[in-house]
Write a structure and sequence with these properties.
This protein is an all-alpha fold. Helices cover 60% and strands 0% of the residues. It is globular and about 55 Å long.
Length: 126
């Protein structure tokens, strides 16, 4: 069995890389891990949630050059509507806050910077 022993700079470098991997692993917004049943089972919420997931490939990342067959503005409008639908729920819980944070993150990826602060507020709510 070959065991690697790190010393000095190698140990420090390896530790930093390991910490970075562990830290950044859970930082990305991903609506696929939201349990909608903890938010609502009503049909209008199911439809809105499906709409978010159906278009995820367009806004789960930021891109400098928009080369898609759908406009950013159309996606921004849909996400604004979906954000309004979910933010109108009176019973706030962690799952809902995560979803609202994800939607705000997706809007930020589409260059709707007004939602950057909103994302921070919903994802850091105590």
């Amino acid at each position: 069995m070959n065991i690697m022993i790190f010393k000095g700079k190698d140990l420090k470098k390896s530790t930093i890389i390991l910490i970075a991997i562990l830290f950044f692993q859970g930082v990305f917004a991903n609506v696929n891990f939201i349990d909608l049943s903890k938010i609502s089972k009503e049909n209008n919420f199911v439809i809105a949630f499906k709409s978010i997931k159906d278009n995820l490939r367009y806004y789960d990342h930021w891109t400098n050059e928009w080369n898609y067959n759908i406009s950013k503005q159309e996606l921004i409008s849909k996400l604004h509507v979906n954000y309004s639908i979910f933010s109108a729920i009176g019973n706030r819980n962690e799952e809902l806050d995560l979803l609202l944070g994800d939607i705000a993150h997706y809007l930020y990826n589409l260059d709707d910077s007004a939602f950057y602060d909103m994302q921070l507020k919903t994802t850091t709510r105590q």
